[in-house]
């Protein structure tokens, strides 16, 4: 007779395949936010076909980071902050603080992006657009089956973004041959954009979004590693597919000789490439990218706080709604919360090397990973990513310090 499940531990879901796919899309849509769209458009205009190599290199590094995090989280059955506290007492509380602070600050930008998306579509005032988008996000977490609602929300809007961006990419007719050639044979290697894309795809809270979702669904233990590995790679490839489609859409525009509007590069690319329809499509893509990032950032940020106090654990859905409300209030009442954004940006640059480094230490601890033996190549891959992330974090801190002094 099988042993009963430990108290307070959810049983594995009946629709585990749906959870794995939902976790992949939650991670991917958390990465695909307003900054993701802008970064991709700006770098495409700047580096043109060579940006294909940047995307390819960043995808490889993203997979290395995410494989390590998701596998160790699953094997240990511990959320990121609890795992960190086992590695070094108190470290988890520090990580929870910087993840929540960074998530709150970037959520202000996500709320703003959702508001701008509705403004593009319907001419709605941005403050009302922010409130309307927040109410839609509230609905996800008011559902009795919050996890399933969040999975479906991420999957549906994720597919919408991919299909619409694919349409624009086809309409702009980018030089595919040149893009494919430069993906493996660039005329020069832009190093810093690779680090920027690494942080934007798996930095901060993002790489933990899907892993924590699986824990909440009861998926833990080494018996799930094959599915977890597949789900983690699916998440990266989904976000990267969106990056590729967006790159091709913008590349088709700039290769034809057009110049993007520096005030809103991705919007101008969609409009130049596909006319007013393209502009409205951008509104849909921007809103979908932003509102799913609101959901992902809020869910994951609060998941890092859940072990700080029993009331947060018991009422975590309400805390998530409060997190969204706080982000929206900041956007509506404070036009430019500069100090918060600067501080959060500085701290966010430190999250990936700290969390990934902690995970790599944890995989060697029998009291955390049990008899599980982490593949040596994954550890080596993780160490490389940590080193690059430390360098990127130092660059971020220096840049933020310079901005702060202005």
UniProtKB/TrEMBL annotation:
<dbReference type="GO" id="GO:0015086">
    <property type="term" value="F:cadmium ion transmembrane transporter activity"/>
</dbReference>
<feature type="transmembrane region" description="Helical">
    <location>
        <begin position="16"/>
        <end position="37"/>
    </location>
</feature>
<feature type="transmembrane region" description="Helical">
    <location>
        <begin position="153"/>
        <end position="171"/>
    </location>
</feature>
<keyword id="KW-0812">Transmembrane</keyword>
<feature type="transmembrane region" description="Helical">
    <location>
        <begin position="232"/>
        <end position="257"/>
    </location>
</feature>
<feature type="transmembrane region" description="Helical">
    <location>
        <begin position="91"/>
        <end position="108"/>
    </location>
</feature>
<feature type="transmembrane region" description="Helical">
    <location>
        <begin position="375"/>
        <end position="394"/>
    </location>
</feature>
<dbReference type="GO" id="GO:0005886">
    <property type="term" value="C:plasma membrane"/>
</dbReference>
<feature type="transmembrane region" description="Helical">
    <location>
        <begin position="317"/>
        <end position="334"/>
    </location>
</feature>
<keyword id="KW-1133">Transmembrane helix</keyword>
<feature type="transmembrane region" description="Helical">
    <location>
        <begin position="120"/>
        <end position="141"/>
    </location>
</feature>
<feature type="transmembrane region" description="Helical">
    <location>
        <begin position="191"/>
        <end position="211"/>
    </location>
</feature>
<feature type="transmembrane region" description="Helical">
    <location>
        <begin position="277"/>
        <end position="305"/>
    </location>
</feature>
<feature type="transmembrane region" description="Helical">
    <location>
        <begin position="49"/>
        <end position="70"/>
    </location>
</feature>
<protein>
    <submittedName>
        <fullName>Mn2+/Fe2_ transporter, NRAMP family</fullName>
    </submittedName>
</protein>
<feature type="transmembrane region" description="Helical">
    <location>
        <begin position="340"/>
        <end position="363"/>
    </location>
</feature>
<keyword id="KW-0472">Membrane</keyword>
<dbReference type="GO" id="GO:0034755">
    <property type="term" value="P:iron ion transmembrane transport"/>
</dbReference>
<dbReference type="InterPro" id="IPR001046">
    <property type="entry name" value="NRAMP_fam"/>
</dbReference>
<dbReference type="GO" id="GO:0005384">
    <property type="term" value="F:manganese ion transmembrane transporter activity"/>
</dbReference>
<dbReference type="Pfam" id="PF01566">
    <property type="entry name" value="Nramp"/>
</dbReference>
């Amino acid at each position: 007779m099988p042993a009963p499940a430990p108290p307070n531990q959810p049983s594995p879901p009946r629709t585990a395949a749906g959870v794995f796919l939902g976790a992949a899309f939650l991670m991917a849509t958390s990465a695909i936010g307003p900054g993701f769209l802008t970064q991709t458009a700006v770098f495409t205009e700047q580096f043109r076909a060579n940006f294909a190599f940047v995307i390819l290199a960043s995808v490889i590094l993203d997979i290395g980071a995410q494989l390590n995090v998701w596998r160790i989280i699953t094997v240990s059955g511990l959320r990121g902050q609890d795992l960190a506290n086992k590695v070094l007492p108190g470290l988890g509380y520090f990580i929870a603080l910087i993840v929540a602070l960074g998530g709150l600050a970037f959520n202000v930008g996500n709320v703003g992006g959702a508001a701008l998306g509705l403004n593009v579509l319907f001419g709605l005032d941005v403050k009302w657009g922010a409130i309307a988008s927040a109410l839609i996000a509230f609905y996800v977490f008011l559902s009795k089956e919050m996890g399933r609602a969040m999975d479906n929300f991420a999957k549906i809007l994720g597919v919408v973004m991919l299909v619409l961006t694919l349409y624009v990419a086809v309409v702009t007719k980018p030089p595919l041959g040149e893009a494919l050639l430069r993906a493996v044979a660039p005329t020069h290697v832009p190093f810093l954009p690779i680090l920027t894309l690494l942080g934007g795809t798996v930095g901060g809270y993002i790489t933990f979004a899907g892993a924590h979702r699986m824990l909440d669904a009861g998926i833990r233990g080494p018996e799930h590693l094959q599915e977890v590995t597949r789900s983690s790679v699916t998440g990266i490839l989904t976000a990267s597919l969106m990056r590729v489609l967006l790159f091709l859409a913008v590349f088709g525009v700039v290769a034809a000789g057009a110049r993007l509007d520096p005030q809103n590069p991705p919007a101008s690319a969609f409009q130049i490439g596909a006319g007013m329809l393209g502009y409205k499509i951008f509104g849909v893509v921007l809103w979908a990218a932003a509102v799913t990032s609101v959901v992902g950032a809020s869910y994951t940020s609060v998941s890092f706080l859940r072990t700080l106090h029993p009331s947060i654990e018991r009422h975590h859905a309400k805390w998530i709604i409060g997190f969204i409300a706080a982000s929206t209030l900041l956007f509506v009442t404070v036009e430019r919360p500069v100090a918060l954004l600067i501080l959060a940006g500085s701290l966010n640059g430190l999250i990936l090397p700290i969390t990934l480094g902690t995970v790599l230490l944890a995989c060697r601890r029998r009291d955390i990973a049990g008899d599980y033996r982490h593949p040596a190549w994954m550890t080596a891959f993780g160490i490389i990513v940590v080193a690059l992330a430390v360098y990127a974090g130092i660059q971020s801190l220096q840049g933020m310090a310079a901005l702060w002094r202005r």
